[in-house]
Amino acid sequence: MDKSEKTEVVLLACGSFNPITNMHLRLFELAKDYLNGTGKYRVIKGIISPVGDAYKKKGLIPAHHRIIMAELATKSSNWVEVDTWESLQKEWTETVKVLRHHQEKLEAGSCDHKQNSPVPERPGRKRKWVEQRQDSSQKKSLDPKAKGVPQVKLLCGADFLESFGVPNLWKSEDITRIVADYGLICVTRDGSDAQRFIYESDVLWRHQSNIHLVNEWINNDISSTKIRRALRRGQSIRYLVPDLVQEYIEKHDLYSSESEDRNVGVVLAPLQRNAAQAKS
């Protein structure tokens, strides 16, 4: 397939990144190789979007630290970047709204590009025809499926996918919008059966063509939870996180027994909001 005929994709990863690990970065590389290898897509950018403090997750350190660590981790990458929009929201923001935000940014950028491009006025044609053509192109650019506008797809691990089954953690309509309107790139891991999970979910099964499962053949069980546990016990985390991230953690003494008690007893924001809406 010609390069111009391939669908351009922006990979968006949402999560705590508490802290960001080498495995988080590895997900982007695996997903990029997979999508590019299909011959249908061309990955042009990756975005890391740390969740805001209002998420209220146990042990979640302040967002500004997590953002800085993510920026340090992606310093050497020429295609993965950090976006602060989600983390700066005063209230917890649903993942589907974060996806919509980034898709709309891409559409607006495409619209601006078309507006700035001169439209040649053909001899004998009225100016009104040219203006109508410009208006038409602007309307088309607002369509998320419009040709030439990159598509945002959600990048995640198998544990993220399986969280769809946790009662009140996700609204069913949000799950539908994520898989139907955007799509999911899920990197599997040992001990999970993502394919079975999709089979057992009517919503996921209905939109399975828009869910891409990527196998990680090189076993890697690094997780932020295990990183924090090692730090609390005074153990080395070298080679588990980027060196710059390790240095930042040590410099600011970020993870301890005290930090792990942050938000203890506080109901996770999505559980609190969705449970309240279910009762109303």
TrEMBL record:
Enzyme class: transferase
Gene Ontology cellular component list: chromatin; nuclear body
E.C. numbers: 2.7.7.1, 2.7.7.18
Domain of life the protein comes from: Eukaryota
Example GO BP: ATP generation from poly-ADP-D-ribose
Named cofactor requirement(s): Mg(2+); Zn(2+)
GO terms, molecular function: ATP binding; identical protein binding; nicotinamide-nucleotide adenylyltransferase activity; nicotinate-nucleotide adenylyltransferase activity; protein ADP-ribosyltransferase-substrate adaptor activity
Localisation per UniProt entry: Nucleus
Chain spans, region Disordered: 107-145
UniProtKB keywords: ATP-binding, Magnesium, NAD, Nucleotide-binding, Nucleotidyltransferase, Nucleus, Phosphoprotein, Pyridine nucleotide biosynthesis, Transferase, Zinc
Record pathway: Cofactor biosynthesis; NAD(+) biosynthesis; NAD(+) from nicotinamide D-ribonucleotide: step 1/1; Cofactor biosynthesis; NAD(+) biosynthesis; deamido-NAD(+) from nicotinate D-ribonucleotide: step 1/1
Ranges for domain Cytidyltransferase-like: 12-229
Main location per the UniProt record: nucleus
The reaction(s) this protein catalyses: nicotinate beta-D-ribonucleotide + ATP + H(+) = deamido-NAD(+) + diphosphate; beta-nicotinamide D-ribonucleotide + ATP + H(+) = diphosphate + NAD(+)
SUPFAM superfamilies associated with the record: Nucleotidylyl transferase
InterPro entries in the record: Cyt_trans-like (IPR004821), Euk_NMN_adenylyltrnsfrase (IPR051182), NadD/NMNAT (IPR005248), NMNAT_euk (IPR045094), Rossmann-like_a/b/a_fold (IPR014729)
UniProt biased composition (Basic and acidic residues): 129-145
Signal peptide: none
Subunit structure comment from the entry: Homohexamer. Interacts with ADPRT/PARP1.
Family: Belongs to the eukaryotic NMN adenylyltransferase family.
Protein name as annotated: Nicotinamide-nucleotide adenylyltransferase
Species name: Sciurus vulgaris (Eurasian red squirrel)
